[in-house]
Amino acid sequence: MRFLDGHEPDHDLTYDDLFIVPNRSAATSRFDVDLASTDGTGTTIPLVVANMTAIAGKRMAETVARRGGLVVLPQDVPLDAAAQTIGFVKSRDLVADTPVVMSPNDLMAQAQSLIPKRAHGAAVVVDDGRPVGLVARNVTGHDIDMFTDLRSAMTPIPVVLPAGTDPRTVFDTLTDANAELAVLVDDDGALVGVLTRTGALRAGIYRPNVDAQGRLRVAAAVGINGDVVGKARGLVEAGADVIVVDTAHGHQEKMLTALAAVAGADLGVPIAAGNVVSERGALDLIDAGATIVKVGVGPGAMCTTRMMTGVGRPQFSAVAECAAAARERGAHVWADGGIRHPRDVALAVAAGASNAMVGSWFAGTYESPGDLHTDTSGEYKVSFGMASKRAVAARSATDNAYDQARKGLFEEGISSSRIRIDPEHPSVEDLIDHICSGVRSTATYTGATTLQEMHEKVVLGVQSAAGFAEGRPLPGGW
Ligand code: XMP
To answer: Per its UniProt record, what SUPFAM superfamilies does this chain match (predicted)?
Structure first.
């Protein structure tokens, strides 16, 4: 990474402050770019989903891992529930998506409330273990109301194929049948999953993030209080592939003690820890046993830390400094927070991050755990910060009312924010396409074929607010 004409900035910068200068490039196709990380997490795209309750659940975990990313389950989830989610993710098919499954006796109302939990827009009706019909979203008609049972409302399945059918064949079969969704079954005719045309295309583009046994990978977070080692061990025994030791102020003694204990337990998985924003902070975490340092204080969309405390640091400079320090020790960093455009992921990689962590942006997708709401502006979900009154109340649910209320007085996060479902990108997979398309293109502009090369070759310039504004498209035209 270097700055245009050697103009090293004399102040800290964030993503919006920077532009990337195109280099002479021999690249011919953006599909030749390898987006895999080398930080031990197995990601094949540089995306980790933040351990936030409103974002990182089981559907997010399976979907993102299938495309090569990694989801971190939040530390507030009790061990048994986290273990269940990990088991679910590990049992998922690497190609087929998990559909909403209904029985013929279920009602239309039940199907319609569950279908938006998946992006493919349909539920599979299963009878006696066999898929027998489909119910699409928003079905209306003469004889169909919300109290109709699915036996009467379902439509025949247009394409049923054996699981393991080559995705290209699935795509072609769907095209020939003029259908959108294929149901995949095992040798006994039992439901394995579903695949859309776009899903079949994606299966040929992305590589799933899989463990040594060929199962989807998933990470889990622990805090720094209580039996941290016991919980971390339990999560790894349940199958967690990465442990994240997480607290807002990662450069504190309690963190270093907890982290050293987790690292000392030799759990056999990469240990990420944070958050910090300085070289000293990164090195102290690495010395305590972190192989990945989580960087970012205050850039998050739900964070009020900087406004409340003045503490934090512009994210690009924080990532660049910590990544340089980590690299010296053979460790890595994740750029955590403030990702709002594909360019931010490219700039995080340019700064030296092995992965960018995304939270709130992914809250507005069908795969996030929250319920889908609709208002006059369209569909949305509700997100909240992990240091907000709402998250703190959930975390201290076993406290007495007085202690709960007392903790709630000191929040450093937003308790409720409507995150719009972008009609152009309603699924997290659409956003992943969007981000990866941008990052792949950045790589070809910089003449890189890997993330590491992108970091090495990138030439950056510092821009004014007008420079950033100039680069924004005019959505409404003139
Ligand atoms: P984005 O911008 O992707 O950032 O939503 C995700 C990261 O934000 C952090 N986070 C918080 N920070 N108060 C904070 O100061 C909060 O309530 C809060 N919730 C999340 C966290 O690092 C996450 O990964």
So the answer is: CBS-domain pair, Inosine monophosphate dehydrogenase (IMPDH)
